C-alpha cells in the first residue's frame, strides 16, 4: 500500500514538473530558427557556388590569354628567325648583284665591248665575235685618212658659218621690221646647233642648223607642258610636249566667266556646256589649233614660211644670189643659189624655249630622229641640241689636248653617210652615233681619249653601237640619265623621267630593224676599203662663198 501511494505521488510530481505552463521551455522556437538558418546557409552556398563559377571562368580566361601570349611569342620568335634569315639572304643577294653590276660596268668600260646576242626575235647568226671580227686600219692609215679627208671640212665649216650667220642676221632683222609688235609673234636672235657648231660636220654639203626662238605678243605667254609631268603618257608621245597659250594672269582666253557667277539664263559666248573653247579670230592669230588653246605646229610652219618669204623680198635687191625653200616638210629649209650654179643649204627652225632652260620645242628637226610620229599637230618635239653642244664644250676642257672623241664621231659619221648613199638610209642615224659617243664620254676617263688611242676608241664606239642594235636599246643621253652632271642645269623633271629608248622603233618594225642591221654590218665590211680609197683621193666639192654685193 505504501508502495502504491509512493508511485501515485511520483506520477503527480512528474506531471507537475512537465506541465508547459509551469516551466516553459527556452528552446521552444528551435524548429523555426533552424529553418531560417538552413535558408541562409542555402543562400550562402549558392553565392559560394556562383563565386566559384566566376573564379573558374576567370582562371580559364587567364589561362587562355596566357596560352595566346605564349603562342604569339612563339610565332614572333619564329618570324624573327625567319626575318633574320631573309635579311641575311637579301643582303647576300644585294652584294652579289652589286658585284655583278660592277663587273658588268668594268666590262663595258674596257677597250673591247662584248656584243651580246639577242633573243628569239633577233636575226639569226648575229652573235659571235664583236663587229664580226672586223679589223680596222692601223693608226697610220687612220691618221692619214683623217688629215686628208676630214680635217679640211672643219676649216670650210668656219667660213660657211660666218657667211650664213651674216645673211640670217639681215634676214631676221627684215622679218622683225615687217611684224607688228602688238599683234604678231616676236622673233628673237638665232642659236647655232648641231654638228656645224660642235665641230664634227663631215657630210657634204655643209649645212648650218639655226634655232629661231619666238614669243607671243603681250599679254600672252607660252606655257609648256612636258610629257614627263603627266601621270600616264603613251610610249609614242614620250619626248614630246604641248604648248598652251595663256594670258599673263593665267586665263587661256581672258574670259571672266570662271571668275564671276553668271545667271541661269546667261551663257558665256566663249565656253559651252563642256567648257570647250570655240573658234575665235584671236586664237587663230596666236597660231593655236582649232577649238584648242594649244599651239599648232602646222600653223607655226605656215606663219614662219610666209614671214621668211616677205622678209627675203624686202632685202633681195641687196644680194647677188637667189633664196628658195629646200624641203617641203621643213618650213625653214632654205637654199642659197649662186649664179655659178652652186648652192648652200641651211635650216632656220622656229622653236619655243621651255621655261628658263636650254630645252627647246621644235616642230620638226631634220637631223634628230622623231621618236614616233606625233599623235596630233599640237605635239612638239623636245630638242636637247643646246645641252649637247654645252656638254661637248664642257667635256673638252677636261680632255687631253688633241683628244680623239670628235675624230671618232667624224669617222663613224663619214662611214655611215657613205653607206646610206650606197644602200639608201636605214634606221641608224648620226644622232644615234652622237648619243653613243656621249655615253662613252661619261663612262671613260679623260686620259683614255688621247690622240694616240683613236684606233681603240673608234673600235669601242662601233662595238657600243653593235651591242645597242642587238639589244634594240639605246637610251637618250639626257632623259632619265642621273649621271649627267648637275652643273648642266637640266630640269629636274627631265632628270627624274623614265629613260627614253631611241631604238624603240626597232621593236615594233622588224623590217626596219633587219635593214638597219644589214646596213650596219655592210658598213663595217666596206670601212677598210672606203678609208683606203678616200685617203688617196679627196673630192673637191667645196662651195665658194661669195660676199655681199
Automatic annotation (TrEMBL):
Family: Belongs to the ITPRIP family.
Domain Mab-21-like HhH/H2TH-like: residue ranges: 408-480
Described purpose of this protein according to its UniProt entry: Enhances Ca(2+)-mediated inhibition of inositol 1,4,5-triphosphate receptor (ITPR) Ca(2+) release.
InterPro entries: ITPRIP-like, Mab-21_HhH/H2TH-like, MAB21L/cGLR
Keyword presence, DNA-binding: no
Protein localization: Cell membrane; Nucleus outer membrane
Topology versus the membrane: Single-pass type I membrane protein
Keywords recorded for this protein, A-Z: Cell membrane, Coiled coil, Glycoprotein, Membrane, Nucleus, Receptor, Signal, Transmembrane, Transmembrane helix
Main location group: membrane
Coiled coil: 38-79
Name of the protein in question: Inositol 1,4,5-trisphosphate receptor-interacting protein
Residues annotated as signal peptide: 1-15
One Pfam family, short name: Mab-21_C
A GO cellular component entry from the record: plasma membrane
